[in-house]
Structures are given as C-alpha cells and as structure tokens.
Amino acid sequence: MQKSSRLKRELKQLSKSPSHGISCWTVGENVDQLEATIIGQEGTPYNGGVFKLSIIIPERYPFEPPQVRFKTPIYHPNIDTAGRICLDILKMPPKGAWRPAHNISTLLKSIQVLIADPNPDDPLMVEISSEFKCNRQLFDQKAKQWTQKYATENDLKASKKILESFQQHFQDAPEFSQHVWSILHLLTHVPAFSRR
Fold first, then answer.
1. pLDDT per residue over 131-179, tens digit each?
2. pLDDT tens, position by position, 24-71
3. Could you give the C-alpha distances from 26 to 50, 56, 125, 171, in angstroms and in order?
4. What is the radius of gyration, based on Cα positions, of the chain?
5. pTM of the predicted protein model
6. What is d(CA 143, CA 140) in angstroms, rounded to the nearest whole number?
7. Bridge partners of 37?
8. DSSP string of 53-100?
C-alpha cells in the first residue's frame, strides 16, 4: 500500500512538473509497471531520438531500485544490446548508489545525463567504449545512425503516447512551457510526424 501511494504521488508530480525531455506513465492500471521516454538532447549524437524505457517496480520499493531497461536500441558504452544499463543509481550499496530518498524522477534524470555524457571507464559494451575513447568521430557517426534507425522512425507510438500524456495533464501543470517545448521538439525532430 505504501509503495502504491508513493508511486502515485511520484507520477502525479512528474506529470505536473515534468523534467525537460522526460515523460513517464503506467502500463494500464498496474503501478508496478511503467514506461518512460527520454528525448535525446541537442549537441549529442542522440539528438531528436525518442528512447523508450521499461521500468519494473520491485515489491520493496523504495528500499530497492527499480529495474530499468531500454526498449529502444541505442549505441552507447553503458547500455547493452538487451537494454541493460550500467549506472550506480540502479544498484544497491555497497556497489551501487541507490537510496530510498531517490525516486523515479531522479532515476530518469540520471539516465538522461548518462545518455548525453557516457562513462567509458565503466562500460557494458567494451568495443563501443574503446571506440568512444579512441575514435570519437566514428562513435558519433554510429550513434547518430542508430538514433535515426531505431529512435525516430520506429518509435512513433511512444511519441504519440507522450503527446497523449501531455494532453491529459497540461491543464493542471504549472509549468506548461515545458510541455509545449517537448511537443514542439517532437514535431520538429521526429521524421515520422512530419510525414503525417
């Protein structure tokens, strides 16, 4: 019960004061299963991409971290082909940095930072990490190609879900400008929208 009420509060807060480029919602009525999207930031090879994530909330949340995986393929040193993420906040101490004070918003912001600023010294994908360190131009080229191939054309449903989420919540949101920015960003950066 405590987990459920906390999650509802977190999701309500996320909808009222969304983080720039981040959206999250429940899968059906089940608060234990969430989906989220993170929009690739400008100035990175992921710019314009809509990256979808799956979030499973454990029974002992917030004392255990959620299980998060990328559903959208991404070319990244810290994210493998199965969507697993190498990030301290996703692990329990002593190896990890998860604390009960963290929440879904904190987690998604941390993943957003990781996307934009990879950590090649703690990789899941050794070859990509080596490429990132030794041939950044080639890494950026491949990351852009993957973003165009997997995170734009094939993620129209996720993009529409973001818009639906904004439509449901924008009237109660004090920071409506953030919603407008995200919608405009999708309309101008996701090719599938411009063709419809």
1. 999 999 999 999 999 999 999 854 455 555 555 665 555 555 545 545 5
2. 999 888 889 999 999 999 999 999 899 999 999 999 999 999 999 999
3. 18, 10, 30, 19
4. 17
5. 0.79
6. 5
7. 23, 52
8. EEEE--TTTTSSPPEEEESS---BTTB-TT--B--GGGS-TTTS---T
- Which DSSP letter does residue 117 get? S
Q: Of the residues 74, 86, 89, 114, which is catalytic? A: 86
Listed in sequence order, the residues at least 6 apart from 104 whose beta carbon sits closer than 8 Å to its beta carbon are 7, 10, 11, 14, 24, 34, 36, 55, 66
Look-up of token digits 């109660």: 172
Is 24 an active-site residue? no
- Which residues contact residue 190 at a Cβ distance below 8 angstroms, ignoring those fewer than 6 apart? 48, 50, 152, 155, 156, 159
